[in-house]
Each structure stands twice: as C-alpha cells, then as structure tokens.
Amino acid sequence: MKNIKIEVKDLSLYYGEKKALKEISLEIPRNKVTALIGPSGCGKSTFLRCINRMNDLIPDVKITGQMLVEGIDIYDKNVDVVNIRKKIGMVFQKSNPFPKSIYENIAYGPKINGIKDKNELDEIVETSLRQAAIWDEVKDRLGDSAMGLSGGQQQRLCIARTLAVSPDIILMDEPASALDPISTSKIEELVHELKEQYTIIIVTHNMQQAARTSDYTAFFYLGELIEIGKTNAIFTKPEQKQTEDYITGRFG
Amino acid sequence: METTINETENQFFSNKKKGIDIKGKFVVGITQVAVLLIIAILFIILGIIVYEGREKFSWEFISSFPTDGMTKGGIFPALIGTFILVVVMSIAAVPFGTITAIYLTEYAKENSKIAAAVRFSIRTLAVVPSIIFGLFGLGFFIQFMGTGMDKAFNGGELHWGQPNILWASLTMSLLTLPVIIVSVEEALKTIPRELREASLALGATKWQTIKNVVFPGSVSGIMTGTILAVSRGAGEVAPILFTGAAYYLATLPKSLSDQFMNLGYHIYIMSTQSSDVEKTMPIQFATTLVLLILTLSLNLVAVIIRSRIRRRAK
Asked: Looking at the domain that runs over B59-313, which CATH code has it been given?
C-alpha cells in the first residue's frame, strides 16, 4: 500500500443533473506514469481535473466520493485548495504560457509562494528549465517573451513552470495533442525522465503514446472506469470486451 | 445531360434579367440616400465649424484669457478648467469603475442577483439624461455633502456647500462610470480561461491570479475606458451647469473648492448669454473647433486601442 499515491473511492461528478463520472474507484501508484485513455467525452479529462480540483471553477459541479492523496481527502472541508494545487501541478492541452518573459513564466509560481530572493529564483528557473529539457534552447534569451517560442517549446516551458513549484504529482491533459511528431517525442522522453521524481497522470487520445509512455493505463468509457491495469496487460490482453474494442480501433 | 444544365442556367439568368426588381432597387436606393445624407450632414457640420473657426483658431487663442467682456481674447481658462475637470473625474471614476468591472466579471456568480442588480443599474445609469446628473449633483454633492461638510468642519461657514470643481467632477464621474465599467469588462473577458487556469493550477489564489494575470492583460481596456470617459466628460455641459462651471473667471482655479470655466459651457454662454452674440461668432466657432478636435482625437485613440484588444481576443 505504501506505493499508492492516489486512492479514489466511489468518485462521481455531476454537471447540474448530468452525471459525468460514475463511481470511479482506482489507485494510482507512486512515481509511475498512469495513462487515462478513452473516446472523447468519456470523462478522462474531467477525472484528471478532479485531482487538482480544477472543476471547482465550473459552476454547478457537484462531486461525491473520496479523492485520497497520500491518504488525505482533498475534498475535505479543511483542505486548502491552493495548497492542493501547489502539490499537484497541471500541464494543459493547449500550451498556455503567460504573456511575460520566459524567466517570469517560470518564476511566477515560486514568487507566488513568497520566494523573493533573486539568486534563489535564478536557481529555480535554471533547474526547472533543465529538468524540462529546454534550458539549452532558451538560456540566452530568458528575458524574451515566451509567446515567441514554438508550440513544442511553449509546452516544455509550461512543464518547467509546473516543476518550478516542486509538485509531487503532475497531471497532463493531452500535452502533445497539438504538437508535431518531433515535439511530441521530446515531451514523451521528458515524461519518461520525470517519473523518477514525480507521479504522472497523463490523458491521451493517442494509443501509441499511452503504450510508449505509461506504466499503467486506465480505460474510461461513458463516464465509467472500465478497466485499469499494467499498460502491457491492457494492450495485450485486456479483460473487458469494450477495452479491447477500443484499443483495436473498433470504435472511438 | 450537358444541354439540360445549360438550359436551366440560361433560364435562371434570363429570368433574372426579365423581371425588374423594383422593390429591391427601392431598398438599395433608400439605404444609399440615407448613408449619403449622414456623411453629408457630418461634413457640413465639420466644414462650417472648420471654415468659420479657422481665422480665430491659433496658439494665441488657446493660450490666452478672454478679454473685453469675453468678446476678444482666447479660451485658456476654459481649456484648463476642462482639463482639471476630466482629470479629477478620472481619478474618481476609473478606480471605482475598474473595481466594479472586476467584481462583475471575476467574482460575481453567473446567476447572482447582486450582479444582475449592478448590471441593471449600470445600464440605467447610461441612459439617464445628463441634466438629471446635474440636478443630482446639485442636490446630493452640493446641498447634502457640501453643506454637511461645512456644518461639520467649518462651523456652518459656506465653503464646500457651493458649486466647485470637486462636485462637478464627481457628478461627471457618475455619468462616465458606465463607459469605464463596460470597457474594462470587455477587456477582462478577452483574457483567456487557459491563462487563469495556468495561474490557479500553480497554486495561485484567485486574487493573485487577478492581480498578476488578469489585470495586466486588461490595462489597455482600462485605458480605452478612461479615454472614452474623458472624451465624454470633456463634451458634456449639463452635469456641470449647476455644480461648478462659471460664466467668467479672471484667474485659474487654485483648489478643488473653486469654480472653473469649461469649453462646452463657454460655447453655451457665448452663444446665448453674451452681450453681443454676433460679435463673438468667430470665438464660438473656434471654441467649438477646439472642443471637436479634443473629443475626436481622444475617440480615435480609444478606437485604435480597442481594435488592438479585439485583435488579441481572436
């Protein structure tokens, strides 16, 4: 049990009357990559956004059940959502750098956490950019606007920005879906390296990507968790018929 | 097959040629006349003002005091008075309007009754005739606030309880508040949700997100709102009629409790209250020209900034 980072018990989510997630129960192991797959609208992104309480921002969303991170229910009344999000970083589908300099993008999180010392910030910026494998590309132009970077670079910048607040968990919502194959493979390599230190949950449309990057795979369909298991097992001999149909491309 | 297609095509075209579409032509004609009329009216107004005002219009006219019972000289005090008015008005209205806009777009829930009430008030405020603002200013600011301040601080001696720049500016700020709120709201809405989420996902609080991400992105909207408000405030006369504008002053105002001269009011005075209206005609036209240049150029700047915001929104 020690190696379980997140434990979800009977989690349901309603958009108003509509039940978008139905009694999801699963366990996400520590320092592994877990991929969430399934056809559009199956609830995988919605589920991902439950883990850092991003759904709080949407009016009329009601969540029942438990989301235990390190044994603590993050939906408990006493839990501060701001602290949750510091510990659980998120990389979005569309790269979303702030219209600020590359440096300021990375320093944003640490500054919000009250780090003011210039040397300390410099160090965080460099470490984060190195971790996200983009340091060499941007080290000579940290003062330039992040908007001038290519799509792939922007996405790695966003990953670096997430790393700068030193989270435990990184949520990735189709991080490479808008990128070219070369940028995609860079992101995938990055995911591979980052799992040494972080628990990563990645939503993807791309089956090969799930197979390449993840250790565990969860298959969602119509708001339900159909199956979760080792990626190898899911892709070679899935237990459920629906999973097999999806993976073999019979629907979705 | 081919012949059939050609035949139908021919029929289609010839049909169109045969019947003259009188109704269509009529509508097009009417709209063209309307457009030409509007352009003509605009050019006639501008033309007359520029033509009649050109002789008197000079640096000296702008920079000197009126002389000889306001039948000669310039409009310097009216220009300065207008300037002070819009500055004080902006200082009051811009922060207030910005904060209201931030509340409406960022904090108010979609179905909030308070927000609905605020929005209703803003819309209503925007259509209240400006003379009503003038009367409200007289009643609220001068008679209630001013007299109250005099009673409290000056032992009843008359100081604040009379028309002055402060009350006129505050009255004007009420009038321009909707302009600012709407402009800032529009700018705030162009900040993409993705950027707010990026900030929140890094553990920023809502206020930190507004302060660091939303607000910097809406500076241009605040500027547009301010410029539009200033241009509106510079042109309105009714709100300051009873609240601070003066017929003639030999000196510039020295404090907020002084009265002031104003371009729009100056035109009104010159054309209705002057001892010799005919004689002051060139001054009236030149003053109008100055006011027009002022408001038109302010509006132009606002339009340019706004179009930049819109482009960013796409």
From this structure: 1.10.3720.10
